[in-house]
């Protein structure tokens, strides 16, 4: 009760604004992920590692827009790239090809071992959607295999078994719909796999070897549970053997785990890669890249598609290309922001600094929780980690479901009330402006939060 009382006391303006929002916007939020009880905090401004809410509270931000803001808030490199681009081109967008599209595509092909060609989208969701459509067209098969607990965006085909119930690990997972309003078709045509369990995965893939078009996965589950390298390699071999397209959804891990994402770190090369988040420097973006022969399926050159006016179909082997379009795809301002972000990350030592900050914070949090008798561990890779309140290994979503989630929620509310912003139960992300000093400050705030929790 005490936490709730202090939260309510400190966020009265947020409560008022939220109440008004909820009159006009379902649940008062524009994305379900932004909601938490009793109401989400309304922010007003941000600078560097800090967020400021409408009640004048300051928070060290570890949500960083779900990991997108790897340079922190308002980085000068980003602001000047945007201003320069806007004044140079004289408009927000051309609606035609432009030079930055090629520049960014070449950059992605240079950095990501799997990428030969690229298409841009406006979100991670659209990127995974296009990747799956490409795989379906390439193989001529219908089913999609995905891993239990892996998130790929908020659309029908992938809202399956993202948030499963606990199950007996001796039995493989079965598909469950995560939202109302999904036609049964999707659960019926989805095969769900257990992450980091190569034996069960191999059995399931073998059983459906003639039906599965693609295996899509977060190579690091939820951005924080690392894969066994042998598991990733085994999966690569199996998908190759069965002619399935392997899609790495690197929306969280791309440019976060390193300049070449998880595929660079683990040296396992998928057929297609989906990117988003960091790629846009905080602006809406996504990209799909991969093998030229698969990517070329969506080329309209020499073909007829639904938006071309040719009445005569071109004499081409495939007269209908795989359709992909979007008014804002390849937006010049967003690509300028993305290129400035990548350039900043390419300056010496950026990833080392990110990892050192993350490790310092993880060690500090583990020590504080340990001193106060809270069973816990941090689990993560590079600049992303999560806090899991349990002993023993954490290898997949089922292990997280076994942890003390209700204590974690209470802890999260305490630390939010002490000026550390995370979305309750969600992961922590670090930015380049989370310096050693900022981490020290965070640990002080964290200690106050934990002390308040255990005092109760
Ligand atoms: C791994 C992964 N894929 C896809 C998405 C969807 O991206 P967006 O929210 O940009 O649609 C997300 C978003 O969190 C994600 O984490």
UniProtKB/TrEMBL annotation:
Name listed for the protein in its UniProt record: Aspartate aminotransferase family protein
Coiled-coil region: none
Record-level Gene Ontology MF annotations: transaminase activity
Gene3D superfamilies: Aspartate Aminotransferase, domain 1, Type I PLP-dependent aspartate aminotransferase-like (Major domain)
SUPFAM superfamilies named among the record's database cross-references: PLP-dependent transferases (SSF53383)
Cofactor(s) needed by this chain: pyridoxal 5'-phosphate
NCBIfam families documented for this protein: PRK00062.1
UniProt record similarity statement: Belongs to the class-III pyridoxal-phosphate-dependent aminotransferase family.
InterPro entries named in the record: Aminotrans_3, Aminotrans_3_PPA_site, PyrdxlP-dep_Trfase, PyrdxlP-dep_Trfase_major, PyrdxlP-dep_Trfase_small
UniProt keyword annotations, A-Z: Aminotransferase, Pyridoxal phosphate, Transferase
Species: Laceyella putida
KW Transferase (keyword) present: yes
Highest taxon above the source species: Bacteria
Keyword Glycoprotein: no
């Amino acid at each position: 009760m005490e936490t709730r009382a202090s939260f309510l006391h400190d966020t009265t303006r947020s409560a008022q604004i939220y109440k008004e929002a909820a009159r006009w916007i379902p649940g008062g939020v524009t994305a379900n992920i932004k909601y938490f009880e009793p109401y989400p905090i309304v922010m007003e401004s941000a600078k560097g590692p800090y967020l400021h809410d409408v009640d004048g509270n300051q928070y060290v931000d570890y949500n960083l827009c779900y990991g997108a803001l790897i340079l922190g808030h308002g980085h000068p490199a980003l602001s000047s790239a945007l201003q320069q681009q806007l004044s140079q081109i004289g408009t927000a967008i051309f609606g035609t090809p432009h030079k930055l599209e090629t520049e960014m595509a070449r950059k992605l092909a240079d950095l990501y071992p799997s990428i030969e060609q690229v298409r841009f989208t406006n979100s991670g969701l659209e990127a995974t959607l296009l990747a799956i459509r490409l795989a379906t067209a390439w193989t001529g098969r219908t089913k999609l295999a995905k891993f239990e607990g892996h998130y790929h965006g908020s659309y029908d085909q992938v809202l399956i078994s993202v948030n499963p119930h606990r199950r007996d690990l001796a039995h493989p997972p079965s598909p469950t719909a995560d939202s109302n309003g999904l036609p049964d078709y999707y659960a019926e045509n989805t095969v769900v796999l257990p992450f980091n369990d190569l034996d069960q995965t191999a059995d399931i893939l073998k059983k459906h070897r003639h039906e599965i078009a693609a295996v899509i996965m977060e190579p690091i589950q939820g951005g924080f549970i690392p894969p066994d390298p042998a598991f990733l390699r085994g999966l690569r071999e199996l998908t190759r053997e069965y002619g399935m397209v392997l899609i790495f959804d690197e929306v969280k891990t791309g440019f976060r785990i390193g300049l070449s994402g998880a595929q660079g770190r683990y040296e396992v090369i998928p057929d297609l890669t989906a990117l988003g988040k960091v790629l846009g420097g905080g602006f809406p973006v996504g990209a799909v890249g991969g093998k030229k022969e698969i990517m070329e399926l969506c080329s309209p050159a020499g073909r007829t598609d639904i938006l071309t006016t040719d009445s005569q179909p071109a004499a081409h082997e495939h007269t209908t290309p795989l359709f992909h379009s979007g008014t804002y795809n390849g937006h010049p301002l967003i690509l300028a922001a993305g290129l400035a972000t990548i350039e900043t990350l390419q300056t010496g030592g950026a990833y080392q600094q990110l990892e050192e900050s993350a490790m310092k914070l993880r060690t500090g949090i583990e020590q504080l929780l340990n001193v106060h008798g809270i069973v816990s561990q941090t689990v993560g890779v590079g600049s992303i980690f999560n806090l899991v309140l349990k002993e023993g290994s954490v290898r997949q979503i089922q292990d997280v479901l076994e942890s003390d989630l209700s204590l974690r929620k209470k802890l999260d509310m305490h630390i939010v009330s002490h000026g550390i912003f995370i979305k309750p139960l969600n992961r922590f992300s670090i930015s380049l402006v989370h310096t050693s000093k900022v981490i020290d400050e965070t640990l002080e705030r964290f200690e106050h939060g934990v002390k308040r929790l255990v005092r109760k």
